[in-house]
């Protein structure tokens, strides 16, 4: 198996981290613009209230997923720094570089991930 280029993966992870932070900040900006300066975007029609509530719930879920992704990316950066990046957390086998290209924060090799999903 080929040697990992840690600098490459570090840059991939940092780029993805930056992208998520920008998306989160953009989402906050959209919410503040929607509400307007000094006012809340309250609706008095029942259908609008339901739609607004649904949109807030979706925004919260997306932000939560993005927060989880940020934590995964930060954990991957820590593994790069401590030398454990690219090593399966379960069986200590190397994680294939193609898997890391697809999922740069992967902690498990493909076999261990498949076992985890079956369990």
* β-strand number: 0
How many H/I helical runs? Answer: 4
Sum up the overall morphology in one term.
Answer: elongated
Q: Would you list the SSEs in sequence order as H and E?
A: HHHH
- N/C terminus separation: 28 Å
Q: Could you walk me through the main structural features you see in this protein, from its secondary elements to its overall organization?
A:
The protein has helices at residues 6-35, 46-82, 97-102, 110-118. It has 119 residues and is an all-alpha fold. It has a domain at 6-85. α1 runs antiparallel to α2 (46-82). The longest helix is centred in the middle third of the chain and has 37 residues, at 46-82.
Produce the secondary structure layout:
Layout: H1 6-35, H2 46-82, H3 97-102, H4 110-118
Helix pairs in contact: 1-2
Question: Key features?
Answer:
119 residues; mainly alpha; 69% helix
TL;DR?
The protein has 119 residues and is mostly helical.
């Amino acid at each position: 198996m080929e040697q990992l280029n840690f600098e490459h993966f570090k840059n991939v992870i940092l780029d993805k981290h930056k992208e998520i932070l920008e998306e989160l900040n953009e989402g906050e900006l959209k919410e503040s613009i929607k509400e307007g300066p000094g006012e809340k975007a309250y609706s008095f029609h029942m259908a609008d209230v339901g739609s607004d509530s649904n949109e807030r719930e979706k925004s919260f879920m997306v932000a939560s997923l993005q927060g989880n992704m940020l934590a995964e990316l930060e954990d991957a950066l820590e593994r790069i720094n401590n030398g454990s990046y690219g090593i399966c957390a379960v069986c200590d086998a190397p994680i294939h570089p193609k898997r890391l290209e697809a999922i740069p924060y992967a902690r498990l090799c493909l076999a261990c991930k498949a076992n985890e999903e079956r369990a």
